[in-house]
Amino acid sequence: MVQSSILGFPRMGRLRDLKKATEAYWADKISRDDLLAEGKRLRLEHWKIQKDAGVDVIPSNDFAFYDQVLDHHQLFGTIPERYSKYNLNPLDEYFAMGRGLQKEGIDVPSLEMVKWFDSNYHYVKPTLQDNQQFKLAAEPKPVAEFLEAKAAGIITRPVILGPVSFLTLAKADRDQTVDPITLLEKLLPLYVELLSKLKAAGAEDVQIDEPVLVFDLAEKSKAAFKPAYEKIGALGAEGPRITLATYFGDIVHNIDVLADLQNLHSIHIDLVRNPEQLDTVVAALGPKQILSAGVVDGRNIWKTNFKAAIEKVENAIQKLGKDRVIVATSSSLLHVPHTLASEKTLDAEVQDWFSFAVEKATEVVVIAKAVTEGPAAVREQLEANAKSVQARASSARTNDPAVKARQAAVTPEMHNRKSAFPERYAEQTKTLKLPLFPTTTIGSFPQTKEIRIQRNKFTKGEITPAEYEKFIEKEIQEVVKIQEELDLDVFVHGEPERNDMVQYFGERLTGYVFTTHAWVQSYGSRCVRPPIIVGDISRPAPMTVKESKYAASISPKPMKGMLTGPITCLRWSFPRDDVHQSVQAQQLALALRDEVVDLEAAGIAVIQVDEPALREGLPLRTGEARAAYLKWAVDSFKLSTAGVTDGTQIHSHFCYSEFQDFFYAIAALDADVLSIENSKSDAKLLKVFIDEAYPRHIGPGVYDIHSPRVPTEQEIKDRIEEMLAYLSPSQLWCNPDCGLKTRGWPETKAALTAMVNAAKYFRQKYSQ
Ligand code: MET
Ligand SMILES: [Zn+2]
Q1: Which of these, 30, 457, 606, 675, could form a disulfide with 24 (CB 3.0-4.6 Å)?
Q2: Keywords of this protein's UniProt record, alphabetized (predicted)?
Q3: Does the interface ipTM go beyond 0.90?
């Protein structure tokens, strides 16, 4: 019999129950016991959902109150002393590492959090010491959760992060120099101990995630697999059977590692992302080893095409036989929303195309049954599925001939500005007349409670569109007045009308749909609800011109139009899986190009196209895949911005500072002005701009907007002074790191006052 399996289930619950409980606990509104009980309730509910769906292999220890990687800190006793010294309750210590703690004389920042591979989930980086000791928790969470499920009559497969991935994803603590992978020998005994404990508790199977196998691994990490799994495998019958799971990429480039993993029970691979790796992996399996075939997408919300998925599994069965294949989700389902059943407002046509975690649980079961008993056993499901797949493929919503025709007519010239930067700059100076060290902000001003209340009223129909528009105009008037008082040089309208920088545009484009409950965890208790791209994208009408034009009409200063770029619109949505992402990006680019041209025609001479997600789209592996991505990503940006005349100044914004390995891409965008996050980084990073002789203008953020702390004028001056070591006075702009929507007004005004004064100081210094 071919079994069905799930690699991990989303833990937030149907109505983001975990988020609510966790935040209530942080706000002292519920007790620790209440929170623990809610966690337990959710775990049970999720196991039952999977069991009721008929899933054979159900995960445990996929639950976490904050982050599953952070859980391993407590599991292995790697809690830095700055947290452990307070002797907090373990749960509070855990949250202190995840989100920092400022309370009753304790003031400790969080550990670093970074993106989990190329997903929008963030994990807390394991942070290790030079003399790191490891100690297995007295009551290891994987054992506790296994027993909890067992007590409820459900036998699960505990999930743990493997030693090589744990150490490869780890870093030395600040001021420490240890190379984490060198700690392998010390860490391995804990895995052995944990696995024996799991076995003793009754766990026959354990899933060990080693997703780093999809990277271009450093030799040291790659070489760590052999000793690690020799040791783990040596447990033999004393330990559980191990499924080693990889996902989000292929492992063909590391295939030789499999030779050292032949004592493991099974190997899981992602056949949604990389179906082509099947043959290579099958050929490298040991004679009895089982293949866990990830054919149900753990990263996206589309209904699985049963026919295609069954073909993939059959293909594996042909080579291995039915006993050696398991049907699985491609990765944990952490990255998809809980259930489609919560969506009451989607229209029936598109609703039938989606499948969230609960629905995907049924999908693995149907596929497993189809290959075990033959298609007749699930004929009804297969027929319904084929119908829905067919309906999606031929729907007028997916295919817009006008969009396709427009894409076919895109020429190489459309990607380039009319002239090179020096000529453009000369034209821009004529109209903009900006001083040295021009000051500006990144777009949004504080989104006050009042703004949210009015937006809510408008969404619910409690106020008319005209009333809402009046309100927005009043907000714009206010921010214009404030910017006048602050004496900034390039104004913004403040984005009061935008709920979210992607959703706002999605709602004004065809091809997008929106959900009401489809939340996915981004980090800790924070969830996002990405819009879904269902079809060809076009712009029926201008999206931002009204607000920008209004703002420009009430001030003599240059007003910056503000757009979200094509790659960010794509990356922060659930993309289509039926056309390549480059095609979707180009459609977005064409829609935005029209907007840029319309803004210019409306008299907006400065236009910023934000691309904060450009870097995170980089493929996990270097080399060709990266170059290909950068080509289409850069082209999309250029296509969206190059329709204007030389006199229009194009800005772009990136809120991350790791642009060293990425410099060429940013430079290739050919934006007249870049603003980048920089206030927390070493100004030395800016050296790349001299080394590469960057010719255009740039505003490295002069202060951090993530905290309410107000920088002093002197701090900003020092910052600018440092930047001047790398950038010339004539190319430097002054701006914060990012938008100010999460800030309050008092600190915003104070910080911008300091910024403007600092800029004036340098302006004066350099104009003499
Ligand atoms: C995450 S980048 C945000 C840019 C946007 N224009 C803002 O100011 O909010
Ligand atoms: Zn930003």
Answers
A1: 30
A2: Amino-acid biosynthesis, Metal-binding, Methionine biosynthesis, Methyltransferase, Transferase, Zinc
A3: yes
